Amino acid sequence: MNKLLMIIMIATTVFVTACSTGAKDKKGDLGDMKVKLEKLKKEKNDNEADILKLEEQIAKADPDAAKQIEKLVSVDTLRIQDFTHFIELQGKIDANDIVYLTPRGMPSQVKQLYLKRGDMVRKGQLLVKLDDAIMLQQMDGLKVQLDYAENIYNRQKNLWDQGIGTEVQLVTAKTNVDAMKKQIATMGENWQTSFVYSPISGVADEVNVKVGEIFNGGSPVMPQIKIINGSSLKIVTEVPENYIARVKKGDKVEVSVPETGKPSYQSVISMVGASIHPTNRSFTTEAKLPADPLLKPNQAAIMKILDYKANATIAVPVNVVQADEKGKYLYLAQQEGDKMVARRRTVNVGEVYNGIIEIKSGLTAGELIITEGYQTVYNGQTITTGK
Known about the structure:
Number of strands: 23
Oligomer: single chain
């Protein structure tokens, strides 16, 4: 037992020692890499200084040789311009007015159908007539009862005028007449539910009911009659919650639907959701769209929300901006005496969009930036544009 315990203790000690040694080795390797990186950076700076010094000496000793070591680059003049940043999101086209037609009363059999799929309908147009035979029979019966009640009332009133009978009899007869009139009026309202009218103007997008079938409206998933007003469209987009502070009602948007082949539609955000969806962590936005026969509900679209704009600023291609431990920088082409040289310039950058980055400070309009060949130039190197 003691030998077994001893073996376990030795194995544990060896394992712990190996782990500690491995951790130390990793830390040692990381430290070595950092030291090596700093050494290479120092060597790079020293090399650049040495190269520049040698080039200057060569230029003085042999002007023709100096021309051979000039770096060929492309340049562009900095200009004042407006910079915009958009949030691009996938959305879908929807309609403000989509109606799934239902009967106002109880479901009933269709007797007449006055539309077919694709028809244009106007608000208030009669679309469906339901079975009303039973209600008409009931109404005829009520009218017969009303005639009888009015006859009794007129007889009672004549007797009352002659001083015959009691006031209670007269009031009871009048009450019966009023009650029958109310029943007929109620039945008339119920009878009106046999006629189904369109509540909006639009297109009959779905007509899934026939004469003789029961009309109950169906459901939004499988509607019997669906009317769409194509003149009142919108784009609905889910915006990730990390943009909640950058998106608000009234923000300008551009909506593009590639399938239409048309330019982007200009609009503004008309609605911002008041809650975050618990599943996809986003909130809903809507923007109105103009009437266009090429736009259809549920059609895919791209909405670009203008969330940032800087007027009269400087912006450059994002690829010309480089970075090191000191920050962001790029290279300018400057004329110094009879030669053009590359000069490093530290810049303070802003937003990036569509391959362009905003320069908040560090550059001035009219300066020349190196747009090609900037990867291999160094500060002070002689350059040429080939012109």
